[in-house]
Structure formats: structure tokens, C-alpha cells
């Protein structure tokens, strides 16, 4: 109590002014000090939040135009794709096989952008009309693309020929990815419009050719050969085959079958998805595409767009 | 000064100005003068307050929370049951097939990509018209999911702050404009939609619809920051979406209007407001007209309308709502004699 009174008295002595006036005198000084502190805090906030936002660069470092994951059909080059995607997920919602997922924080500016994990669920072009492309509001999935044959998601490669059943001369009997696998595929002969779980469709083949059988481009190619155009549209027809089993003769004279990827492959990933070995023997390289030229329809439409 | 310009400058961070005496309309001067002679006791205020809250408790807040939850739920339900009513997320969507695009996300995309597609243009136009009519930042308080979480966090913040367990560090409001420019420039120069990487609105909207992500940790961090260190910091000082919609709402017909006649200037409205500077006109001698529209930074959340014990703050739809019901007679009855007395 006395301490406080002493302090007060001291203050009064030093200022030599009535205490009421003193507060008015000191007011602006304090306010200026607070304003300066507030300014410094604001600078700190600006630097802080901006730095966090720039952290989105970290995962992209060094590969601005390299895809970290497979993108849905029609995706622009990676740089343009990340610039234009508005991260709404409409492509996710329309996909009939739920192949598309959205990226998380770990991909930096890829946050909220769509990707496909082919081994879990590949795009099998069930929809024929490329619903994801139609749904995209910004053209990140280019609206020039109308047909699966002009898609360029990547290209299949026989990554591990040593484990490939066909190369080993083995057949396959049973459920391709086991009873716990949830992926779905469309089977033309079962139900044209509704994809069914892979586990509901067992295979029994003498030499494993699941990747060839399931390939949507191969199926379309064969349908067209029979004059039976997908969705009744001749433009749906792929100009070239995508994959086939070939009889290979090694230098040492050993002969065996082997899946060979042709120029018609668009990288949809169904082969990677269905491959029944523990790890997929055949996988998609989504940073490379076929040398096959785009169709005249595509090129014509693309002129109108640019 | 032109009121729209003043409203714009306040949106960008300028502190509200105290009007000079000659800027106040004669009628306003008369009312302020009358109020000078009328002492309001604390007991009177409390009585007014109790009377007011007896009848209408959080009417607008209830409506707003319901709307906000309904809109966000519509996205979720639409996808979950595949009814294709409202597809996409808050950044871009289609309502019954018709394109809509969040204006700030669309701006980021246009700056980064430097190309605009017709679909995006349709989406931008729709949303522009929608929020122009409904009041710009109305988006913030009636739709943005982060706003709702931040509102709850604010409650917690105030509770903790009252017990000395949380601080409220303030920032200069102009810093939000600085962020706006920074994020526009970053999009333009880097070619990435940089703001989308940290936008809690986008992150939350997608998490609701497509399932939780790690990015929610960032949203949680922001909420903790607001709870313990700075009241409503993101919406007040950072979010560029607020500025974008604020700009859209400058000339909007939907707004909160202030009628100073019965106002007791006790400040209940400013205590609950997310952007209290827009309510500086409710301070004594700050209003230039008897009735005045609240500025563009206002999110039309209605908390002040709920809080005001004298019904001095009300929603208005310009051209549709009738002028506030104070009869002219009552105003003219404000004793002029008193003026002579003093």
C-alpha cells in the first residue's frame, strides 16, 4: 500500500504536472509505441504466412514439368495443369469407377488436384465420353479431348519381365487381385454400363494374358475390327493396337510369350491394375507417352482452341 | 467524401475517420445534441438489453448457421448420394448443371494460367451476380465453412481472454491488402495458384466432401492461433477471399443499415462484430446521416442486428425494404426547446 503511494508520489514529482493532464500527455506516446509494435507484428505476419504459402514449392523442387503422379485423361502438361486446376474435384465426382483422387499437402501446390493410382483403380474408359474432361471447369483436363484413343496419360512398360507369368510360361486361374481387392472394371459381355468388382470375375487362362484381355484400347480395337463401334461412333476406334502377347525367341534359343506394348497405348493403367503378380510386372510411366500422332479430329479441334 | 470510396478504403485497411461537425446533417446534429442532455444509466441499458433479448435471441445467427451448414451439407449429400444437385467444392461447382466459380479461386487460376475458358467465365459471371445481389462478403459469414469454425474459436478465445489465458494481438488491417497483392503477384509470376495451397476455405470444403486430409492440420493451427493469440486473425488480417467479395459488395443492395435516432451508443454491436471498424458510425458523433449503410467490409452476419437493444441496426434490401419505421413526427418532436435552454 505504502509502496504504491510512494510510486505515485514519485511520478507526480517527476512530471510536475497534475496527474490528469499527465495521462493525456503520455497517451500519444503510448499509442505511437503500440502502433509501432502493431506494424512490426504485421510485418511478421506477412512474412510468416507468405513463407508458409511458398512451402508449396518444396515437393516440386527440380521437376516443374515432371509428374509426381498419374493425372486424369486430358491433363495439360504438369506446369499448366497445376496453374489451371481450380481444385474442385468435379472430375472425382463424375468418374464411374472412382479412379480419381485428390492430392494432399505432401505434393505442395498439387494440394487438391486430381490423380489416379492405377494399381488401386485405373481409368478403364467405362464412360466412353470422358466425363472427367467434360466436368472440368477450367480446361485443366483439356476440352479438346473427346476420345480415349487421343488420351496421353502415359505408356505401359513391362517393368519386371522376370516376374511376368506369361514370360515364365505360366497360366492364371482365380481372382486376379485376390478377394480383398476392391477395384472395378467394366466387362462388355457382362454389363456394358456398370463396372463390376474384379473379385467377381475370376479368370482361367493357359498363358496369362490378363493385361491384353483387359486393355480398353485393345477391346475397342477388336470391336471396331468386327464393325461394332463403341457408343456407335466410328471416331471411338483406336488407330493402332496397344498391347499383345508375342512369341519371343531369346539368343540362347529359349522361346516364350511376352506382353509387348504397341504405339496405340495411351497409358490408362488397366494392365498395371489387373496384373496378378504380387507387384505389377507391367506399370505405367506417366512421364512418357506414345509416339503415335494425335487423331486428325483432335488436331482440328485443338486449332480452334488456341 | 463519397461514401462508396470511403467504404472501399476501409475495406483495404484505412481506419474510419471521425467526421467534422459540418459534415453532419442538421438533423443528425440536432439528435446528437438532444442525446447530450439525456443521461443513460447502466440500469436503463441493462433493462433495454434484457427486454430486447427476451423476444429475439440470436435470430439472424440461427438463420445464418443453418444456411451455412445447409450449403456445405448440400455439397456433401449431393456427392454421397450421387444426386448431382451441387457438384464440386466451394472453389468451383455446378448447381443443377450450371457452372459456378469462386471468384478468388478463379482469379488465382486466371493469373497463374493466363487463359480463360468459357466454362470458367460462365461460373465467374454467375457467382459475381449472385454475390453482388446478396452483398459481397455475405459469402464469408453465410457460406464459408472456416467462418463457422472461427466463430466457435472466437467464443473460446473470448472466454479464455476474460480469464487471462489468451491474448489478443492485433495487426494493421492494411496487411490484408498487402496479402491480396502478394498472392495476386505470386500467382502471376510463379504460375502456381499459391493462395489455394493455404486457403482454409478450399481445404475445409474439400475435406468435408472428399474426406479428411493432412492439410486440415494447417486449419487447426490457424484456429489455435486465433484462440490463443489473435481474435479472428485470418478473416480480419489475411484472407484475400474477403477482399474479393468485399469489392463485389461495395454497391450491393443488401446491407445492414444504421439508424442513429434511438441508438444509445453503448457499443454492444461493436463487441460482437468481426469487422468492428465498419460500425464506428455507431459511436457518438460519427454518423453523418440519420440513416447510414454499413460499409463493404461488413459480412452481413447479423450479429449486430441481433445484439442491438434499440433495433438501430437492421438488414436492408435497397428498393425492397421499407425505410425504417420511425415516423417523421417523432423525429420532429425531438425537443428543440432544449437547444434554446442551453
Order of strands, widest sheet of chain B: 1-2-3
Order of helices and strands of chain A: HHHHEEHEEEEEHHEEHEH
Percent helix among the residues of chain A?
A: 25-40%
Q: What is the quaternary state of this protein?
A: heterodimer
Terminal-residue CA separation of chain A:
83 Å
* Distance separating the two termini of chain B: 32 Å
Low-confidence stretches of chain A: 1-20
Count of DSSP H/I helices of chain B: 18
- Largest beta sheet of chain A: what is the strand line-up? 1-2
Any idea what the radius of gyration of chain B is?
A: 22 Å
Any idea how many domains of chain A? Answer: 2
Structural class of chain B: mainly alpha
N-to-C SSE series of chain B? Answer: HHHHEEEHHHHHHHHHHEHEHEHH
Mean pLDDT of chain B: 90
Shape of chain B: globular
DSSP strand count of chain B? 6
Number of strands of chain A: 10
Q: Describe the largest sheet of chain B.
A: 3 strands, antiparallel
Protein topology:
The complex is a heterodimer of chains A (306) and B (342).
Chain A: H1 2-15, H2 19-54, H3 78-84, H4 90-94, E1 100-102, E2 114-116, H5 131-135, E3 155-158, E4 172-174, E5 184-185, E6 196-197, E7 203-205, H6 210-214, H7 216-225, E8 243-249, E9 255-261, H8 270-274, E10 282-285, H9 296-305
Chain B: H1 3-12, H2 26-36, H3 42-55, H4 59-80, E1 86-89, E2 92-95, E3 98-101, H5 103-113, H6 118-134, H7 138-142, H8 145-162, H9 175-190, H10 194-198, H11 200-210, H12 216-228, H13 233-238, H14 240-248, E4 254-259, H15 268-272, E5 291-293, H16 303-307, E6 313-317, H17 328-332, H18 337-341
Antiparallel strand pairs in B: 1-2, 2-3, 4-5, 4-6
Helix pairs in contact in B: 4-11, 5-9, 8-12
Amino acid at each position: 500500500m505504502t509502496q504504491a503511494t510512494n510510486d505515485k508520489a514519485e511520478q507526480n514529482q517527476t512530471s510536475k504536472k497534475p496527474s490528469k493532464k499527465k495521462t493525456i500527455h503520455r497517451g500519444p506516446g503510448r499509442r505511437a509505441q503500440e502502433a509501432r509494435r502493431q506494424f512490426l507484428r504485421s510485418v511478421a505476419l506477412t512474412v510468416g504466412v507468405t513463407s508458409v504459402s511458398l512451402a508449396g514449392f518444396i515437393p516440386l523442387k527440380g521437376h516443374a514439368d515432371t509428374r509426381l503422379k498419374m493425372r486424369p485423361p486430358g491433363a495439360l502438361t504438369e506446369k499448366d495443369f497445376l496453374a489451371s486446376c481450380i481444385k474442385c474435384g468435379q472430375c472425382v465426382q463424375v468418374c464411374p469407377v472412382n479412379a480419381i483422387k485428390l492430392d494432399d499437402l505432401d505434393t505442395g501446390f498439387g494440394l487438391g488436384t486430381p490423380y489416379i493410382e492405377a494399381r488401386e483403380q485405373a481409368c478403364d474408359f467405362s464412360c466412353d465420353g470422358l466425363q472427367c474432361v467434360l466436368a472440368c471447369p477450367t480446361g485443366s483436363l483439356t476440352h479438346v479431348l473427346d476420345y480415349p484413343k487421343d488420351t496421353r496419360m502415359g505408356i505401359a512398360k513391362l517393368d519386371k519381365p522376370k516376374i511376368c507369368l506369361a514370360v515364365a510360361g505360366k497360366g492364371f486361374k482365380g481372382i486376379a487381385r485376390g478377394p480383398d481387392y476392391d477395384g472395378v472394371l467394366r466387362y462388355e459381355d457382362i454389363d456394358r454400363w456398370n463396372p463390376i468388382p474384379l473379385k467377381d470375375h475370376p479368370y482361367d487362362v493357359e498363358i496369362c494374358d490378363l493385361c491384353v484381355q483387359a486393355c480398353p484400347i485393345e477391346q475397342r480395337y477388336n470391336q471396331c475390327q468386327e464393325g461394332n463401334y463403341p457408343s456407335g461412333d466410328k471416331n471411338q476406334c483406336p488407330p493402332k493396337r496397344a498391347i499383345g502377347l508375342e512369341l519371343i525367341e531369346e539368343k540362347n534359343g529359349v522361346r516364350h510369350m511376352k506382353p509387348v506394348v504397341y504405339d496405340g497405348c495411351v497409358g490408362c493403367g488397366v494392365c498395371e491394375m489387373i496384373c496378378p503378380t504380387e507387384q505389377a510386372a507391367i506399370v505405367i510411366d506417366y512421364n512418357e507417352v506414345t509416339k503415335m500422332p494425335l487423331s486428325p479430329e483432335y488436331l482440328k479441334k485443338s486449332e480452334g482452341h488456341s | 467524401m463519397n461514401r462508396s470510396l470511403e467504404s472501399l478504403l476501409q475495406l483495404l485497411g484505412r481506419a474510419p475517420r471521425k467526421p467534422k461537425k459540418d459534415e453532419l446533417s442538421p438533423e443528425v446534429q440536432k439528435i446528437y445534441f438532444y442525446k447530450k442532455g439525456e443521461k443513460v444509466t447502466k440500469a436503463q441499458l441493462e433493462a433495454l438489453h434484457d427486454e430486447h433479448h427476451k423476444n429475439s435471441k440470436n435470430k439472424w445467427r440461427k438463420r445464418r448457421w443453418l444456411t451455412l451448414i445447409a450449403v456445405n451439407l448440400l455439397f456433401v449429400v449431393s456427392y454421397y448420394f450421387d444426386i448431382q444437385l451441387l457438384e464440386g467444392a466451394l472453389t468451383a461447382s455446378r448447381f443443377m448443371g450450371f457452372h459456378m466459380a469462386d471468384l478468388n479461386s478463379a482469379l488465382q487460376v486466371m493469373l497463374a494460367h493466363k487463359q480463360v475458358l468459357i466454362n470458367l467465365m460462365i461460373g465467374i459471371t454467375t457467382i459475381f451476380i449472385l454475390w453482388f445481389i446478396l452483398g459481397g462478403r455475405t459469402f464469408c459469414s453465410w457460406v464459408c465453412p472456416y467462418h463457422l469454425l472461427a466463430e466457435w474459436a472466437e467464443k473460446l478465445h473470448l472466454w479464455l481472454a476474460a480469464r487471462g489465458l489468451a491474448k489478443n494481438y492485433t495487426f494493421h488491417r492494411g496487411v490484408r491488402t498487402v496479402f491480396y497483392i502478394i498472392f495476386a503477384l505470386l500467382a502471376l509470376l510463379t504460375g502456381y495458384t499459391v493462395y489455394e495451397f493455404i486457403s482454409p476455405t478450399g481445404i475445409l470444403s474439400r475435406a468435408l466432401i472428399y474426406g479428411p486430409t493432412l492439410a486440415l492440420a494447417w486449419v487447426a493451427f490457424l484456429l489455435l492461433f486465433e484462440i490463443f493469440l489473435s481474435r479472428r486473425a485470418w478473416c480480419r488480417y489475411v484472407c484475400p477471399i474477403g477482399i474479393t467479395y468485399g469489392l463485389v459488395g461495395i454497391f450491393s443492395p443488401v446491407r445492414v443499415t444504421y439508424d442513429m435516432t434511438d441508438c444509445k451508443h453503448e457499443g454492444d454491436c461493436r463487441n460482437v462484430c468481426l469487422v468492428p471498424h465498419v460500425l464506428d458510425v455507431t459511436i457518438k458523433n460519427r454518423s453523418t446521416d440519420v440513416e447510414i449503410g454499413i460499409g463493404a467490409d461488413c459480412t452481413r452476419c447479423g450479429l449486430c442486428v441481433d445484439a442491438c437493444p434499440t433495433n438501430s441496426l437492421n438488414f436492408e434490401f435497397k428498393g425492397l425494404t421499407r425505410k425504417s419505421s420511425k415516423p417523421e413526427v417523432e423525429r420532429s418532436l425531438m425537443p428543440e426547446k432544449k437547444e434554446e435552454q442551453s
